[in-house]
Amino acid sequence: MGVTSTAPHLLRAARGEIVDRPPVWMMRQAGRYMKAYRDLREKYPSFRDRSEIPEVAIEVSLQPWKAFQPDGVILFSDIVTPLPGLGIEMDIAEGKGPIIHAPIRTQAQIEQLRPLEPEAALPFIKTILQALRQEVGNQSTVLGFVGAPWTLAAYAVEGKGSKTYSIIKNLAFSEPAILHQLLTKLADAIAIYARYQIDSGAQVVQMFDSWAGQLSPQDYDTFALPYQQRVFQQIKQTHPDTPLILLVSGSAGVLERMGQSGADIVTVDWTVDMADARARLGKQMKVQGNLDPGVLYASKQFIRDRIIDTVRKAGNWGHILNLGHGVLPDTPEENVAFFFETAKQLNVLV
Ligand code: CP3
């Protein structure tokens, strides 16, 4: 078999094959810490333009690929991108994040939501993913991503990011039936969207339930976990071979529960020691993570030591090396380059 017929490194590890070093990519690897991104942002000041005009989104997605050759190339987009396709109009404001024009708070609004028709609503996603696959070939793995029902509901109901999640928690604890209706509709739309990404070229899909760590474990079991399961089950029905990753931010208290979601790979953040995460999740579960993004402010020696520590604790099977969450916008680009170089030499170093 020639080299070109071999599946890319990250995909092989995600499927559970033994590989010579953990594959590596970074959440938010395309974005503000890169000068090339900031330059392009001058030309295209609107986030929706940057992520929805195919040529621009393709270029942004490929900026980290060209600079660092990560083992994963993630689609440049946002978790709220599919919402207009359901009838939830939104924008993404500089420095603030998603803004929902008419927050969803009543049953009547939920009843009016449309089922997602991805070919019609999100044609640019297909163009972008096809181009990324074409560009990276077997040298890297193309990742798609979606937001999870609870996290997308948090944006839809709150209308923007929140520190307290007061409005959605009020709804959850006072009128749960209404929220369950919204979560069900979002789950079905997200599954359709993820399938469309896979059909368009995504080889692995990560679901971000970023704000599920804001729930108590018992509420996570009611409002987050069943809908994560609903999405993953629906994707697996039609696409059983595509590895699925779950991320929850601030996940230490719900790590075992994340393992029950149906994900193949659980992202671990830096509030959990990687050795403890392995013990808590069991030998069968694959993991991703988990350096503190702040480590990339430090010296090269410090960065190297933390990488080696993480990789030793994760062991030599079922680990995708990553940060525990997105790279921070003021991270020195040089340190990102060093992170990738070091990671790619690990079969020599560890
Ligand atoms: O990883 C990647 O390179 C893909 C890019 C990506 C973006 N958003 C681009 C983006 C991904 C995976 C997302 C997902 C996303 N969006 C999440 C889940 C990930 C996480 O952080 O937990 C969430 C919660 C959002 C909502 C959102 N969109 C926020 C909180 C922000 C940041 C607001 C800010 O300015 O600090 C956005 C905007 C956004 N999405 C940016 C990027 C690179 C920053 C704006 C910019 O660069 O112009």
From TrEMBL:
What this protein catalyses is: uroporphyrinogen III + 4 H(+) = coproporphyrinogen III + 4 CO2
Q: Does the keyword Cytoplasm apply?
A: yes
> Which pathway does the protein contribute to?
Porphyrin-containing compound metabolism; protoporphyrin-IX biosynthesis; coproporphyrinogen-III from 5-aminolevulinate: step 4/4
Superkingdom of origin: Bacteria
Q: Give the UniProt keywords, A-Z.
A: Cytoplasm, Decarboxylase, Lyase, Porphyrin biosynthesis
Q: Which residues cross the membrane?
A: none
Coiled-coil annotated residue ranges, if any: none
Listed GO MF terms: uroporphyrinogen decarboxylase activity
Q: Mind telling me which NCBIfam families this protein's record contains?
A: hemE
* Family designation: Belongs to the uroporphyrinogen decarboxylase family.
Q: How does it assemble?
A: Homodimer.
Full protein name: Uroporphyrinogen decarboxylase
Species of provenance: Nostoc parmelioides FACHB-3921
Q: Which gene name does the record give?
A: hemE
